[in-house]
Amino acid sequence: MGDQPVTSATTDEDGAPITKAREWRALLMVTFVILPATSVAVVGGYGFAVWIGQMFFGPPGHP
Predict the structure, then answer these.
(1) Which UniProt keywords apply (predicted)?
(2) Could you write out the DSSP letters of every residue in the chain?
């Protein structure tokens, strides 16, 4: 099947074995770094969009 190496689910793209410790580090990185940073970025981006919208259209009020 060509010259592509055969990999299994227990090795990464470099051929190094995936261990439980690496899985835990990846889980903790996603849980405590990536998801909170993404949440802050999304909420901050929404707040920025509302702020810019209020600069152009004025604050919300009664019609």
Answers:
(1) Membrane, Transmembrane, Transmembrane helix
(2) -TTPPP--TTB-TTSPBP-HHHHHHHHHHIIIIIHHHHHHHHHHHHHHHHHHHHHHH------
Domain residue limits, the chain: 19-56
Cα–Cα nearest to 23, from 10, 36, 35? 10
The predicted-structure confidence for 4-60, as pLDDT tens digits, reads as follows 665 557 888 888 888 999 999 999 999 999 999 999 999 999 999 999 999 999 998
With 0.85 as the threshold, say if the pTM is over it.
no
